[in-house]
Amino acid sequence: MSGQGSGGNVIAAICNLFIPGLGQLVQGRLGAAILFFVLITVGYFFWPLIIPPIIAFILHVWCIISAARFTPEGHG
After folding, report:
1. Which domain holds residue 61?
2. Which of 13, 47, 52, 73 could serve as 68's disulfide partner, Cβ 3.0–4.6 Å?
3. Mean pLDDT of the chain
4. Number of domains forming the structure of the chain
5. What pLDDT was estimated at residue 75?
6. CB-count exposure of residue 62 (10 Å: 0-12, 13-18, 19+)
7. How far apart are CA 3 and CA 69, in angstroms?
């Protein structure tokens, strides 16, 4: 991937819209991908409890922004 604002980051952010953590996986950040996927999926799973899905939604937005603003180490 090039850098922040690159086409790769846009694709990663779009991937995160559909599957949380997929954008981080595309960028090669396995740990972040697993963490985002598990936390957001569990939060959405407990939708009847109100609070977990709200937290999951906030994390989902953070996940998308994180992928869009990612700059590889040594490039910035």
Report:
1. 7-69
2. 13
3. 89
4. 1
5. 59
6. middle
7. 8
